[in-house]
Amino acid sequence: MTAQPVRLPPHAPGMRIGLFGGSFNPPHEGHALVARLAFTRLGLDRLWWLVTPGNPLKDTRALPPLASRIAAARRIAQDPRIVVTGLEADVGARYTADTLRFLRKRCPGVHFVWIMGADNLLQFHRWRDWEEIMRTTPVAIIDRPGATAKAASAKAMQRFPRARLDERDARLLPTAAPPALVYLHGPRSASSSTALRRKAP
Question: Which of 48, 87, 138, 161 is most buried by a 10 A CB count?
Fold first, then answer.
């Protein structure tokens, strides 16, 4: 982790800020759909799209430059409440747990929510310090095509069976004491970065 000063997006104690990380390679309408659902159901003040420098669980040797992915994400993110940032590269964080530790220290009083698709939930137990993430940060799971029926069998759901809030109480999530998670259903997009890369010339 870097010792250099890092400029963070605007924030203040009491704000409810969603954190949505990914390679955004490329960004697509599905990302924007997640944002709309998160704002509506969780009552967020802001949503930070964390464009990652890489993914420890994927081969990122052919990953486009961070700056180009940030620029592409900003073209998709039309809502002024969305902030697209590459702060993980500035921080020197390779893992989500490192990012969350940094933000908790730098942003006291901010109510962060980690947001991820249900497809990531199925392999969440492979993330570095995933149990720490669950114990320190509320998590919102966004339903994805093909993942609905498998969600209950995810190790994270089994490890923290009492953490799940009723979907009707989703607005309570940002201020809930972790471990706390909610599974959100809503309009779904079949778009995926992987499929878009395969179609690219």
Answer: 138
